[in-house]
Amino acid sequence: AQTVTQSQPEMSVQEAETVTLSCTYDTSESDYYLFWYKQPPSRQMILVIRQEAYKQQNATENRFSVNFQKAAKSFSLKISDSQLGDAAMYFCAYRRGGTSYGKLTFGQGTILTVHP
Amino acid sequence: NAGVTQTPKFQVLKTGQSMTLQCAQDMNHNSMYWYRQDPGMGLRLIYYSASEGTTDKGEVPNGYNVSRLNKREFSLRLESAAPSQTSVYFCASRAYAQGLGYGYTFGSGTRLTVV
Question: What is the pLDDT of residue A56?
Answer without folding.
Answer: 85
